[in-house]
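Q: What would this complex look like in 3D?
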Amino acid sequence: MQANTKADVVIVGAGIIGAMAAYRLQKDGRQVLLLERTAVAAGASAGNAGILAFPEIIPIAAPGLLLKAPKWLLDPLGPLSIRPAYGLKIAPWLWRLWRASAKASFARGVAAQTAMMRLAAEEMERIRDVPELSAFIDNTGTLDLYDSEASFNAAAGDWLEKEKAGFEFTPVGRTEIEELQPGLAPQFRHAMYGRSGLQVNDPKAFTKAVCAQAVARGAVIRMAEVVDIAPVSSGGGIVSLADGTKVKASTVVLAGGAWSKKLAARLGDTVPLETERGYNTTLPEQAFALTRQLYFNDHGFVVTPLAQGIRVGGAVEFAGLELEPNYRRSKALLSKAARFLPDLNSGGGTEWMGFRPSMPDSLPVIGPSAASRDIIYAFGHGHLGLTQSAATGALVSDLAAGRTPGIPLTAFRAGRFS
Ligand SMILES: Cc1cc2nc3c(=O)[nH]c(=O)nc-3n(C[C@H](O)[C@H](O)[C@H](O)COP(=O)(O)OP(=O)(O)OC[C@H]3O[C@@H](n4cnc5c(N)ncnc54)[C@H](O)[C@@H]3O)c2cc1C
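A: Here is my prediction, written as structure tokens for the whole assembly.
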């Protein structure tokens, strides 16, 4: 294959992962060309809940998953649903999810996620030191709410793991809950309070601001769809664009979020990447006097205070990348939120659906492709892409420079399911 233009580093995808990789590589002295087919922050990075969830070290594939999942699946608008038209397609992924919930795999997953989250917290602190980015990060604190004493007690093991990993939380009862967040329904008598919980107050603007920092250091962003990536035997890769252009680059980074699977397959890596769709509604700020991040843990959704208002959403729908959104899911979450926050004014909101790029073991894919060490993967961050973005940027720049990465990457390799 002949290239008709050249670049030092090409990054595919300008979501938060591509943005952070561009920023770090550019800081490392590399010259980045960031290719995006739609717009900067067009995917999951635009409308997520904004949480920097460093303590979330427990993979979704946890022992006991099979006890919870059927109950959730029975309610088509509940925390977890599978669109009938997608049932057969998602079956192999769910099988792998179940396999990953076995005790030994789960323990490996917790260890890998803990290392990743420590690095993520450290690297996000560096981002917080950048004056143009620090205003996007707020310390609002977290309140993890449970419907009953039984569900609070059932989560005790997870909290113990988080404590062991160095994250601090305080169990609180009704009086403290009321002080921390006035206006919650009386059923919430058991919660965990995280004083140091951080969040991004505008995920879309943050992604754009990180890109702007990369551009200020010399990166170039170009709107283009990448249709193929191929290795070059003498080193580097060739990136083919939909308009016929072929770019020869010394390093290629695939950060295409939920759309990365096909390009990875072209490079010889069959990765079980699926999308866990998530829905939310952003209400005007005056909809409720929200003091901090609220997690309704028995219902799989969160309410977060953002610059543009209050975002209510979460949950998981398996329906692939093509089926049309089902906004009854965001409406269902909103009506639950109105039950749990009786003073919430649920009118005037904006609905959104995003594609989480998810692997069955809740760990991202970070590392070289099978085809070439110069073609590096950075996708599959599932529910935690914003949280882990600064760490992924750092790891990608280590790999590109041939340095030993900040944490071992064995658990994140593309071929771990083959
Ligand atoms: C409802 C919801 C709530 C969430 N809440 C949180 C949260 O609170 N905290 C958290 O940490 N995470 C959260 N997440 C997850 C987080 O949003 C994602 O993990 C993260 O945004 C993934 O970033 P990304 O850059 O990999 O993908 P994306 O943001 O999807 O970006 C990928 C980009 O690549 C581009 N692209 C793809 N293929 C090509 C191609 N062939 N050529 C050119 N461009 C291409 C796409 O257009 C897109 O812009 C949430 C997700 C959802 C859906």
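A: To summarize the key features: The CA atoms of residues 22 and 214 lie 6 Å apart. The chain has two domains: 5-45+205-272+362-417, 58-111+124-198+273-358.
Q: Very helpful, thank you.
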